[in-house]
Amino acid sequence: MTAQFPPPVPEAGQRLLSHEELEAALRDIGARRYHNLHPFHRLLHDGKLSKDQVRAWALNRYYYQAMIPVKDAALLARLPDAQLRRIWRQRIVDHDGDHEGDGGIERWLKLAEGVGFARDYVLSTQGILSATRFSVDAYVHFVSERSLLEAIASSLTEMFSPTIISERVAGMLKNYDFITKETLAYFDKRLTQAPRDADFALDYVKRHATTPEMQRAAMDALTFKCNVLWTQLDALYFAYVSPGMVPPDAWQPGEGLVTENAPAEPGPAATPTAQPAAFSGSDVPRLPRGVRLRFDEVRNKHVLLAPERTFDLDDNAVAVLKLVDGQNTVSQIAHTLGQTYDADPAVIEADILPMLAGLAQKRVLER
Amino acid sequence: MNAPTPAPSPADVIPAPVGLLAELTHRCPLRCPYCSNPLELDRRSAELDTQTWLRVLTEAAGLGVLHVHLSGGEPTARNDIVEITAKCAELGLYSNLITSGVGGALAKLDALYDAGLDHVQLSVQGVDAQSAEKIGGLKNAQPQKMQFAARVTELGLPLTLNSVIHRGNIHEVPGFIDLAVKLGAKRLEVAHTQYYGWAYVNRAALMPDKAQVDESIRIVEAARERLKGQLVIDLVVPDYYAKYPKACAGGWGRKLMNVTPQGKVLPCHAAETIPGLEFWYVGDHSLGDIWTKSPAFAAYRGTSWMKEPCRSCDRREKDWGGCRCQALALTGDAANTDPACSLSPLHAKMRDLAKEEAAENPPDYIYRSIGTNVQNPLSEKAPL
Fold first, then answer.
1. For a tag on chain A, would you pick the N or C end, based on fewer CB atoms within 10 A?
2. Is the ipTM of this complex over 0.90?
């Protein structure tokens, strides 16, 4: 599942590593410690959590999301030049949005609401686990107090943020029938941010870690950050999976929710999620007449034009649809993408099958 | 250190338009009593010429328009409809023919296909031919429509059926769904009448009761589930019975512009009903200038014009205060909250109005026609 990384450099910390060696060593930390390897995360990914377990996760993780701009603002305040600040401040914009109702925190709130929470309850953070609060606060302190190099290096977990669809939050949550399409549509909007952020931070670390000690410090900072994420999942697992010891005052199933089945006006409500018409690897997908992939020069992005609709596409969808030509099978498309992105075609195929089925269900893709 | 400049609220930024509703002509063989065209229809002699339309399309593409809705009236009544469609294809614009399927529509269909037409939206007034033809005001319309639809799918063009729902056909919602499947349509619009233009005049003859509306919604939701992957059904609920208003045209001056047959550019097709707005013409200004600078587009764009309860509402950038034309028609002030919104102090009265009208026997239709002297209901006192 995880891409193959070079083995760790044994003498790291004793001699100055080349930029390539340093990057390999940093990536190795993620390959062994990033929280996608955590048992709780695997349960989430495989669709095996109960609704209340997903709720606990969404509620706790909100605190992490909410504190990210606080952390970034602390870091920003210490950056000595305008160019760096311009780059870093984009993270705050991404999270806070540039107006009400926009941004990563708001998207997380939408997710929490989507699983049934009352917005105010989530905002209050009164139900989160103490371990969540301690971990997140430790991260904010770390970034405020340690060297700039360490602070920036600690953000490098973004290098390990998943790029394949099924591993991303929206992809994982598709396995749960209590997550509505609206929740996901809102959530899956902007997941191209992480790679851009990580590229800059990695470059900074490579250029500024100029002694073996500094390189070691950068690696330790990244390890620390991995532990911040891991610890939060440990606590969730302990409280809500096994042995199920919920600390006093932490959220208990049933609390903080909007009353279910509140009387609503009739309207175009979400239809229950059902399994879409399945695609298989040997199918040849094609765009029917009346559906066109087009580059929109005014907005500088690809769009899928369809009857009375325009679909905004994320980078993954664009990559796939560019290969949908009425000739390639799904397996061939996955193979091509696997070569382009140096990834396992079988994993890619598993990811793009549901995406293609989703488009087929909207009648914008045929086979 | 300079004080930071606050980023402009996105509500104040003028986004690029996404859609152009090209009302090529007001001429139409049908006379539907809910027509969205204005009560005063443009005559043929006032219509823009071909070259002007081609220029408008070119300017639209440059502005960022992606979808062009070739509409009317009946757009195929224009002799240059094929040329206009070909221009859309050349510019990469997604062309959508919004047609009645009667008159000369079928005769031009193959040429439109060859010109690169992307999509056809065909109106159907009813399932039962007799009642459909009574609503559309044209004898023998139904067989023409069926023949037209058959040719659309035969050519492999994607077909959407559009059914405007009102008390005269609301019992036919299941029939519309079956018809869409039978004709091979990929989409069906079950669009409850929106009460502007001719529909406002005919409201008492068209307004269904709440139970009927609820039942139609239930039927559509069940059909969506049953026909998943086969037919996409879009549902537009009548906003007299809604909880929140719709973002009319996606928000005033945010997504859509509407060019009338004589070249007047409107933020929505009913905008002319609002007195005092200054509309610009494509004959005098470029489309880009009209979009960004014309007073009519600026009037209700964004949120700064809003009054309470919109002004401080969380939803103000979701539905943009609803429909200005409806606010004017029903409350007498276009800057009021659309009374379709449950937060409007006038909402309950609006709903009562609908209930009362739906409970009475329907009056006869006042059919749409060019040159009819219909009393403009907006010159009367606003009813709420």
1. N
2. no
